[in-house]
Amino acid sequence: MSKVLFICGSLNQTTQMHQIARQLPAESFESFFSPYYVDGPLELCRRLRLLDMTVVGPPLANRCIDYLSTHQLPIELGGKKHRYDLVFICQDLVVPQNIRGVRKVLVQEGMTDPANFWLGLVKRFRFIPRRHGGDRAVRLVRSILRRERRISRPLRRARPRLGGNRRIDAPRGQYSRH
Q1: Predicted structure pTM score
Q2: What is the pLDDT of residues 42-54, one digit of tens each?
Q3: Dist. CA 18–CA 45, nearest whole Å
Q4: Which of 1, 95, 154, 170 has its CA 20 to 30 A from that of 139?
Q5: What is the dihedral of CA 140, 141, 144, 145, to 10 degrees?
């Protein structure tokens, strides 16, 4: 049985994760839920209550825990008890250390941040952290990385096209239909 971790965020994101978990077959997947969490320097910021306006802060995290408790879902704070085969995560600007090597599915709400001054800077200067440009910058960075991967891959040898083209050795007016 595969273990799946759902890292929830706002109440809307938490209900989305719950709906996804209900669609997974219970005989194949064991689901666990956690409010969004951070580690390293951001954990220190959270403890100093500098992140209270984010999904990591206590106000939104407590709403998430209340929802999970109300629906009697298995809560695993910080996803530390098990090794997971798959993680559903509601944002990817900050990915906790303990799930970095695990397959992830990013679930987004469908809303996008408006373009702003920072987005232009992130596009022009790659050393500026992408989080400053909002979710558009995240998509921009991903498309740049995909393009670079395509460019760095060796080109495949082109196959000769045979269908519908006139063969060079065929008499004029005769075409090959191989």
Answers
A1: 0.64
A2: 999 999 999 898 8
A3: 28
A4: 154
A5: -150
